[in-house]
Protein: tRNA-specific adenosine deaminase
Amino acid sequence: MEDRWIKECLRQAKRAFDAGEVPVGAVVVKDGKVIAKAHNKVESLRDPTAHAELLAIKKALKKLNQKYLHGCTMYVSLEPCAMCAYALVLVRIDKVVFLAQDERAGAVMSQYNLLDDLSFNHRVKWVYKPMEPAKLMLKEFFKRLR
Structure:
């Protein structure tokens, strides 16, 4: 079943790629159902906070009509940055699964370990599940920019 959500996460990343955005997709799952999905829209919205994770969080909160995302898991194609990692803590999501490392700005395991910080009032479980398609899409995107 997890494969289905990973595929949707990669589809969202591809939508971002096709739109000229950094190819990051995110999917929020609760009780075996996708409740929100999004992809980066930083360029199209001209908003540096319009990361896939934040857009998916907002959609999920609206759909559930709640302040927190207890019982939810997020699948995201790239390791969350500091802004997104802390947002996951703030919304009290249970778990995040990411498919590619962000060696420059990753805030889960690469540059920082925010989700392991004991000073936060909520702990988000995390899993790095390397997926070649996520890594290759990012590589191709940045290759085209050069």
Observations:
- The mean pLDDT is 97.
- The first helix runs from residue 2 to 18.
- The chain is about 40% helix and 20% strand.
- The beta strands are 25-30, 33-39, 72-76, 95-98, 125-128.
